[in-house]
Amino acid sequence: MSPPLRRGFREMLDDRRGLLDADRYEVVVDRIARTLTAAFNAGRKVLWCGNGGSAADAQHLAAEFSGRFLRERKALPSEALSVNTSALTAIANDFGYERVFARQVEAFVQPGDVVVGLSTSGNSRNVNLALEEAKALGATTIAFSGNGGGQMTEFADINLIGPDGYSALVQEVHITLGHIVCDLVEQSLFPEA
User: Fold this and answer.
1) Comparing C-alpha atoms, which of 175, 179, 172 is closest to residue 69?
2) Is 23 exposed, middle or buried (0-12, 13-18, 19+ CB in 10 A)?
3) Using 50, 70 and 90 to split pLDDT, how confident is the model at 19?
């Protein structure tokens, strides 16, 4: 291995040491899992939103519920608000990009639903407006953020604040903890599967 490659590899691993500090995340991950479990038990849905890599994570985690994670079980009502490109582009054109998620929340959210926003900075205006709208409609709001949580913390009932650092590092924590949430929800809802 060349010295620059070795150095880069070591730096990457050093950034990730202690990534999942159980003491820091355990309580909030359990609370998120319990919240999603209660919503699904009540026949409610979970909607996800984010931009860029966070949109990809939102789609990924929504699919773990509507498809399956580790257990053969019935589908759960979960969707990412970034998947309908016609809605995204129409809303962006007519109302501005900052409203692309809030407008969909207005259309689809009912009291008791859950809206999860992902933003590595916590300052994505369109995600924060979605959480604000969801809260006004009686939904529970959850934020997956990083770098101190940003403005997003004001709009979320539950805050999972990842590490400080660049987006990829925060997103790795989000997807890992998201998978733990998926597993906990499946274990709770489908213990026989």
Assistant:
1) 179
2) exposed
3) low
